[in-house]
Design a protein that fits this description.
Elements (H helix, E strand, L loop, with lengths): L1 H15 L9 E2 L6 E4 L1 H20 L2 H23 L5 E4 L5 E2 L3 E9 L6 E8 L2 E7 L4 E9 L4 E3 L4 E5 L6 E7 L5 E4 L20 E4 L4 E7 L11 H5 L5 E8 L4 E4 L9 H17 L4 E5 L2 E6 L2 H13 L3
Parallel strand pairs: 4-12, 16-17
Antiparallel strand pairs: 1-3, 2-11, 3-5, 5-8, 6-7, 6-10, 9-12, 10-11, 13-15, 14-15, 17-18
């Protein structure tokens, strides 16, 4: 009974690939690599059959020699094609978040721990090939392009790794499904509506901070600082990046509120509009917060805050 289930599992793996994502490093064992002749390989075998029949009919010694010589070359090609793919180690690499409609690049690290080079490897995903070579005892990184159609999590489907090395008479292949995914943010809309007006809850007291009235001095540059406040003259004199500090009225907090959107916008259009607001507020160096139904992110600035807001927008309602 167990052997029957094992055979069914292997048949499913051969024709449909792994059922679930495979965590960690994927090792291409011998029972995961399949090999069949290509169309040129079938034509080659048919030609050998015709040559053998002709040699038998006409008792051609040189015909026998040529037929068996070509047949032995074909048998050696089987070994080299299979060996070119078997015992590779494939692991998931990095993948950067993208916006809907862009291309996500899934990095795969292919490691060759053997003493011979692996040539003409092709990784197929959704009919798109990516070719690479791996030197002996080394590894290489391959990026698989996948178009992100919708916001949320994007995971690659089954990837086929194949090779027809060295002469193209045979094709060896294996299926992999690495455990990796990419976060897809909503596509920013193309509208030119202004950002929501800041709320005036911060009072009128004078502070040394993000105001813009009177110049108060310089401080070390921080990643969340607006480019407009950088002291570029000091940077040109090779004194490092410094930020101008102003004293003025305390900056009001900017809230990107779901309820401030027009009522006729659907869900995806609302998320696209708020994504544009987040990007615009971050580009201007503003402190902003995000309000969605059922959740709220306190006002802040900088890249971590921007990524947190975009993440909430990408996964909202999923």
């Amino acid at each position: 009974m167990f052997q029957k289930l094992l055979n069914r599992s292997q048949l499913y793996l051969a024709f449909f690939g792994p059922r679930t994502p495979e965590p960690g490093t994927i090792f291409l064992r011998q029972n995961r690599v399949y090999i069949l002749p290509t169309r040129p390989g079938l034509a080659f075998g048919l030609a050998l059959g015709v040559m053998l029949i002709g040699s038998i009919n006409y008792t051609l010694s040189l015909g026998y020699i040529l037929t068996f010589l070509l047949a032995s070359m074909g048998l050696v090609a089987i070994l080299h094609t299979f060996r070119n793919l078997v015992h590779l180690h494939i692991s998931a690499g990095r993948v950067e978040p993208v916006f809907a409609g862009e291309t996500a690049w899934f990095e795969l690290f292919i490691e060759n721990r053997s003493r011979y080079e692996r040539s003409a490897l092709v990784l197929w995903h959704q009919g798109k090939p990516t070719q690479c070579d791996v030197a002996s005892g080394r590894g290489t990184t391959v990026s698989i392009p996948i178009t992100a159609g919708h916001r949320g999590w994007l995971a690659p489907e089954r990837i086929t790794v194949d090779t027809r090395f060295p002469v193209g008479l045979l094709r060896a292949w294996s299926y992999i499904r690495p455990d990796m995914r990419c976060l897809v943010y909503p596509r920013p809309d193309d509208g030119r509506l202004p950002l929501p007006e800041p709320s005036g809850n911060a009072g009128e007291k004078r502070v040394a901070g993000g105001g813009s009235d009177d110049f108060a001095g310089l401080r070390a540059y921080q990643s969340s600082d607006s480019p407009r406040h950088i002291h570029w003259k000091a940077a040109a004199r090779e004194q490092g990046l410094q930020t101008k500090v102003f004293s003025g009225r305390a900056a009001a907090e900017l809230w990107l509120d779901w309820n401030a959107l027009p009522a006729d916008l659907n869900l995806e259009d609302r998320l696209s509009r708020m994504t544009r607001w987040v990007l615009a507020a971050d580009q201007d160096g503003l402190r902003y917060g995000l309000r969605l139904p059922g959740m709220e992110i306190a006002p802040d600035a900088g890249e971590p805050h921007r990524l947190a807001c975009l993440r909430e927008l990408a996964l909202y309602g999923l």
